[in-house]
Amino acid sequence: MLPKFSSQAFLAPMAGVSDPALRLQCKKLGAGLVVTEFTNIHSIVAKEQQLKENQKTIQEFIEYSEGERPLSVQLFGSDLTALEKAAKIVEPFFDIIDYNMGCPAPHVTKQMAGGALLQEANLTQQIFSTLVNAVKKPVTLKIRLGVTEASRYLFKDIAQIAEDEGIEMITLHPRTVNQGYSGNADWTMIKQLKEISNIPIVGNGDITTPEDAKTMIDETNCDYVMVGRGAMGNPFLFEQIDDYLKTGTYNQYSFKNRLDSFFEYLHLTEKYKIKFANIKGQAMRFTKGINGGSKIRSKITLSKNITELEKIMKEAYHQ
Ligand SMILES: Cc1cc2nc3c(=O)[nH]c(=O)nc-3n(C[C@H](O)[C@H](O)[C@H](O)COP(=O)(O)O)c2cc1C
């Protein structure tokens, strides 16, 4: 059974972005669910073996904190043996196991994983059945529409298979794999999925304001919304969406607030092994739209360590 979610707005899994520090920050600001960056099932199996030898658990590899709960772990990869093993390894630590069938990156689709699976109904059915039978925790799914424009309705068949196999919730990012991030997310497809589904549907794609979130819910009848790029460098969006859905109004935040929240993020990163390049990426996003932002961002690019980065971000208060 799915856990209870404190809000209708979820943080999307984003590789290199939705690290444990950003997830915790979004959670504190009201995200109903946060999802780890996608993780390769083969890496989980290999890592666990190494970690076991040192009496450590997979938490060393997929870092998180209790404050993030309910917490979903996202897996990708289609080898059924590795999938079963990986699911069993992560199960004790997470509340939901999410399966990625949307990633358009060639290094993922080439290994018959991510979005490429949308055109493989048989394998997909085996994947869902393997996952659902391997664990007692709820299994959820994240998909795109299809692979090509001609196959943009594949999601309907996949959703049916998923439901039949016991998947408990589906997130739809309504673009095709070939679209990447171009064009607009077609929210009418979320409405169509909701109409044929008996499990909760999470609408995703192009939400950048509280108004967008409400419009998606009103137009598609989806149960939850998931926000990715709109929350980058702007974790306040979760509080704003929650408030707007409940009261019709929300607080505005200044650039100073955004910079404060970057330093809060930076403080949270101290507990984890987050790559410096990823932290720099976050700093860039927290300065989006700030006066003189592009100048700040070129300095950020050149920074070599946290101390240098902190200095640049402190200077940004005086822009
Ligand atoms: C930098 C980046 C990394 C992403 N990584 C993942 C991922 O690991 N797993 C996944 O299912 N989707 C991933 N996505 C897709 C997002 O979860 C989401 O579906 C997509 O960005 C559309 O939502 P948005 O318009 O709110 O950003 C990623 C997107 C971005 C921009």
Topology (SSEs and partners):
Elements: E1 9-11, H1 20-28, E2 33-35, E3 39-40, H2 41-53, E4 71-76, H3 80-90, E5 96-101, H4 106-109, H5 121-134, E6 139-144, H6 154-165, E7 169-173, H7 187-196, E8 201-204, H8 210-220, E9 224-227, H9 236-247, H10 255-269, H11 276-286, H12 293-302, H13 306-315
Parallel strand pairs: 1-2, 1-9, 2-4, 3-4, 4-5, 5-6, 6-7, 7-8, 8-9
Helix pairs in contact: 1-10, 2-3, 3-5, 5-6, 8-9, 10-11
This protein binds flavin mononucleotide (FMN).
Structural write-up:
This protein has an 8-stranded parallel barrel, surrounded by 7 helices. Helix 2 (about 40-55) packs across helix 3 (about 80-90), helix 5 packs parallel to helix 6 and helix 8 (about 210-220) crosses helix 9 (about 235-245). It has 2 domains: about 10-245, Alpha-Beta Barrel (TIM Barrel), CATH 3.20.20.70; about 255-319. The protein is of the alpha/beta class. It has 13 helices and 9 strands. Helix 8 (about 210-220) links the parallel strand 8 and strand 9. The protein starts with 8 loop residues before the first strand and ends with a helix. The chain has helices spanning about 20-30, 40-55, 80-90, 105-110, 120-135, 155-165, 185-195, 210-220, 235-245, 255-270, 275-285, 295-300, 305-315; strands at about 10, 35, 40, 70-75, 95-100, 140-145, 170-175, 200-205, 225.
